[in-house]
Request: fold
Amino acid sequence: MDLKAIQGALRESKLDAWLFYDHHHRDPIAYRVLGIAPKMCTRRWYYLIPAEGEPAKVVHRIECGNLEGLPGAELQYSSWKEQRESLKRILYGKHRTAMQYSALNDIPYIGLVDAGTIELVKSFGVEIVSSADLVQLFEARWSDAALASHLAAGKVIHAAVRVGFGMIREAVRAGKGIGEYDVQQEMARLFETHGVISDEPPNVSVNRNSANPHYLPTRESSQPIRAGDFVLLDVWGKLNKPGAVYFDITWTGYVGEEVPRQYAEIFEIVQEARDAAVNLVQQAMREGRPLRGYQVDDAARGVIERHGYGEFFVHRTGHSIGEDVHGNGANMDNFETRDDRRIIPRTCFSVEPGIYLPEFGVRTEVNVYVEEHDARVTGEVQQAVVPILSQPAE
Reply:
């Protein structure tokens, strides 16, 4: 934990304090920001970082080691009355305090504190402010090591996409049956061989299934993949080591030598939307101009709406990426929520517009890493639907 930096950010934000709270490991953000390992947490603990002065802890007597190693005076409690009195005591004079709270739960990744605890803190005369911007500063920014892990994972994940398309090519040419689940499992084996893990296996979707953005094949639901089919591969993962961050991409292909116009046309629109979003981020960073998540969504969504497919773009343009595939930085979103957090250096997010028609869905997804005065796509960029049965480039 960088106490000095946190206190500086609190003063800059005109906040009196940042209050962390956990019970039964409901708030993973707290542990990552504070730099402590989760321990048994069957009793509530609180940790207050003031804008000025020494932090304060409130812990239960039978779990008094939960905040061990953190600076600050410690108050212990046993009864609920003692717990409330201790919390009131450390909050005295803290009129504006940040918590893992999001008004109307607009940003559910941040809204981790239960309503009753919010009510309790407010009962002490405290105004609660969302910690969303603070979380982005101290949890969503990547270290050099995190960026290196992202790039390393990306090489494996792009290789998995090539393996997936190659497996389909070989099976179809040989007249052998192959299905979504077969391809998924082969990519998963590649992950295991190269030390990459994921919260879910890859998404391999054929035809109508590609119109479901969160489809995942199982052994039972798997559909066959044949010549003339449209295929979507959504693949994400990270290195299997502490502090590693995710890489998350989507590519599409057609099981043939020449891609039909119906697929190519939709891809070109989605590609234009993707590039509009990426270019906006790059220009803003180069010019030193503030840019917020919802504005990036507007840029991509505007392209798709202009082409008449707005009703078929059914999710946000992109999400923050971190140690979880859906991270805690700004999302590229003015659809599911209005994310007005600024896009800041050393953060990464996906840009993944899509058009989902009844017969098939097209998405193209890249990861954008923001630097001090620029932004870059961290992996390969798909420029056309892959003709899976054509000879692969050497």
